[in-house]
């Protein structure tokens, strides 16, 4: 069968043969056995409902084996025969071009060069899934291939509930992931209900089909590291020869060495999974691989002496580096961590003193012992960090729940008031006041032609638009404008594309709308060969309510509320988004965050122009409004400026209360 025929058939008419799995493919860790015998029966019953009854006898035994072996039912037998990658949009069988764009984005998320655990349909973060199983993938692609522009596909945590009549102005797809009743949103609830096949962890851009490989986090990390050095170095100093120490090379965290190279420092990134370290080295995201701590110490001393700009992956545990560098008196300028600590008990963080293989065995067979070792390691990790910060190291939490889980393990990470952490989130110190409050966030696009020359053209369009805006921009946002102009100018040189022909930059509402409008005109005139998909990371101004990351610089008590994210996805849905998504979970953990995203296909039409202006304006200013109501000075500046430019916008502004008045009351 051809590629198009396979897409259109959905669940095959004949039972496929069992697959021989490639042993070189990076596999998801085996999940812990949490279901009772009766619950395992329910999980198998749930899985079998996708298939004809005369297949049940054979598949039931197979699904039982998968459940017992992996803790999940993935339905490996139903993996497609064709390769998964972002094909040109015209290669997809589709009635709706919008649906074809979504198919392209789904396949990009599952590309073996992009996805962290492609066999398990996990894109990044250890558990960030596009679907729960391969039957869901097959059905979803079939629905997308046959839907019209007057239907909407509703996705329930990877399950395609069905096509429903709607309208041309409605989203083509509505996605929810992990939207649990609040009292059922603890880590073990994810383990249980995911094993039952009724919910999934969509991370942020995994389950919303908007992941573009590590490039997205390269940009955010570059901006973060550059500004962290600006905060800590003297004006006459550069980052060359200065150390940024971190951990994690799987999925999104694999972008850290590339970001460090762009920022111009020595980046040392520990990774316990040797396959992940080797993959990033082969992809060119890290310069050098080091196997032993002695070798690392010697190499780093040379790099410091020569003031090198170099990235080094250490195949081992980062705790060992923190401890050894202290003994060796190696000064660490910046320190952080980007392991998947939102998922601490299932392979998101590997404890020091235990091999990678031993740890995976403990996860499956002795989860309580594994948990004890993780907590011991977190206490040891934090103690080593504290010794370095006493010498002057600037340590920040990179929004991966490191400080949260360390505090739960009893590590010494709390401030003297016993409420706050002693180290800031990078959003509190950097991205919040410098980017999000001004409306700057991760605007991204994908050229659906698959042609690098189209990406080059869009890069130039973005540079021209940003340069025009910068010429008249207020001083408060000049640095942001210039950083992102420089980023785009150097993007091709830095070889950031993995998978789809995609790009990201940080822009505000004005920049996003003007760039998008220029793209739409370029499509209409034939300058670009095919439509462009717009989107963003959920890690943005407006899409995410996350008290330990995106909204950590909200101080009016509302950082634990999720109204903003819900309003964001609803507001985008009727203002023109092609698809919208809302998730429980994300980078800081199940039950810790609610986040929403969107996708918008530009096809050169007047309708696309109308939608982009309306939707992108709201998508950003919803968040600025909430941040200004929290009394954030930068957001107040931004929203007042926007109301002056847009008379139709009327936002409730806070009256500032004098501290003395309140202090005199108590």
Automatic annotation (TrEMBL):
Determine the domain of life of the protein's source. Answer: Bacteria
Its Enzyme Commission number?
A: 4.2.1.49
Q: Which HAMAP family match?
A: HutU (MF_00577)
| Cofactor or coenzyme needed | NAD(+)
Q: Which PROSITE patterns match?
A: UROCANASE
PANTHER family, per the entry: UROCANATE HYDRATASE (PTHR12216:SF3)
Functional pathway:
Amino-acid degradation; L-histidine degradation into L-glutamate; N-formimidoyl-L-glutamate from L-histidine: step 2/3
Reactions it catalyzes: 4-imidazolone-5-propanoate = trans-urocanate + H2O
- Give the UniProt subcellular location, in the record's own words: Cytoplasm
Q: What is this protein called?
A: Urocanate hydratase
- What InterPro entries does the database record attribute to this sequence? Urocanase (IPR055351), Urocanase-like (IPR023637), Urocanase_C (IPR035401), Urocanase_central_sf (IPR038364), Urocanase_CS (IPR023636), Urocanase_N (IPR035400), Urocanase_Rossmann-like (IPR035085), Urocanase_sf (IPR036190)
Domain Urocanase C-terminal, residue spans: 436-640
């Amino acid at each position: 069968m051809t590629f198009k025929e396979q897409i259109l058939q959905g669940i095959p008419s004949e039972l496929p043969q069992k697959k021989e799995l490639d042993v070189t493919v990076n596999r998801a860790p085996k999940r812990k056995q949490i279901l009772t015998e009766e619950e395992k029966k329910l999980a198998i019953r749930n899985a079998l409902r996708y298939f004809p009854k005369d297949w049940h006898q054979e598949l039931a035994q197979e699904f039982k084996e998968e459940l017992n072996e992996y803790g999940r039912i993935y339905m490996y037998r139903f993996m497609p025969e064709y390769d998964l990658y972002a094909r040109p949009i015209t290669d997809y069988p589709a009635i709706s071009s919008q649906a074809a764009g979504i198919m392209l984005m789904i396949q990009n998320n599952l590309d073996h060069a992009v996805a962290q655990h492609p066999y398990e349909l996990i894109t990044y973060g250890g558990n960030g899934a596009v679907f729960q199983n391969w039957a869901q993938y097959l059905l979803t692609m079939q629905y997308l291939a046959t839907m019209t522009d007057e239907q909407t596909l509703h996705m329930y945590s990877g399950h395609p509930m069905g096509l429903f009549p709607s309208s041309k102005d409605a989203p083509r797809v509505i996605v929810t992931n992990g939207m649990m009743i609040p009292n059922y949103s603890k880590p073990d609830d994810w383990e249980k209900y995911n094993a039952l096949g009724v919910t999934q962890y969509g991370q942020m851009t995994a389950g919303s089909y908007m992941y573009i490989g590590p490039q997205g986090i390269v940009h955010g990390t570059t901006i973060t590291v550059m500004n962290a050095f600006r905060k800590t170095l003297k004006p006459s100093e550069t980052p060359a020869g200065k150390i940024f120490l971190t951990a994690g090379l799987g999925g999104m965290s694999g972008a850290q060495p590339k970001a460090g190279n762009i920022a111009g420092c020595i980046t040392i990134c520990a990774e316990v999974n040797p396959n992940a370290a080797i993959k990033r080295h082969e992809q060119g995201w890290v310069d050098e691989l080091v196997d032993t701590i002695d070798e690392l110490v010697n190499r780093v001393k040379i790099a410091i002496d020569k003031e090198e700009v170099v990235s080094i992956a250490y195949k081992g545990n980062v705790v060992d580096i923190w401890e050894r560098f202290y003994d060796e008196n190696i000064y660490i300028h910046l320190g952080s961590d980007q392991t998947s600590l939102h998922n601490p008990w299932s392979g998101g963080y590997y404890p020091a003193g235990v091999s990678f293989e031993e740890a995976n065995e403990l996860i499956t067979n002795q989860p309580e012992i594994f948990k004890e070792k993780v907590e011991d390691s977190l206490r040891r990790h934090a103690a080593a960090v504290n010794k370095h910060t006493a010498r002057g190291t600037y340590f920040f939490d990179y929004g991966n729940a490191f400080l949260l889980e360390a505090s739960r393990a009893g590590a010494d990470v709390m401030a003297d008031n016993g409420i706050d952490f002693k180290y800031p989130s990078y959003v509190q110190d950097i991205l919040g006041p410098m980017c999000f409050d001004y409306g700057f966030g991760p605007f991204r696009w994908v050229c659906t032609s698959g042609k690098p020359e189209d990406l080059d053209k869009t890069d130039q369009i973005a540079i021209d638009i940003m340069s025009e805006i910068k010429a008249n921009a207020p001083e408060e946002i000049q640095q942001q404008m210039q950083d992102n102009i420089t980023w785009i100018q150097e993007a091709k040189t830095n070889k950031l594309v993995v998978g789809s022909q995609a790009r990201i930059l940080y822009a505000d509402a004005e920049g996003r709308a003007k760039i998008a409008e220029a793209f739409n005109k370029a499509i209409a005139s034939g300058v670009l060969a095919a439509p462009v998909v717009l989107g963003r990371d959920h890690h943005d101004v407006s899409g995410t309510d996350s008290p330990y990351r995106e909204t950590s610089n909200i101080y009016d008590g509302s950082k634990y509320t999720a109204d903003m994210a819900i309003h964001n996805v609803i507001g985008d849905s009727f203002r023109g988004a092609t698809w919208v998504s809302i998730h429980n979970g994300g980078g800081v953990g199940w039950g810790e965050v609610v986040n929403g995203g969107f996708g918008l296909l530009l096809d050169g039409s007047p309708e696309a122009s109308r939608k982009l202006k309306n939707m992108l304006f709201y998508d950003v200013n919803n968040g600025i409004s909430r941040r200004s109501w929290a009394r954030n000075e930068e957001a107040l500046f931004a929203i007042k400026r926007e109301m002056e430019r847009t008379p139709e916008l009327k936002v409730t502004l806070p009256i500032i209360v004098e501290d003395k008045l309140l202090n005199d009351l108590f």
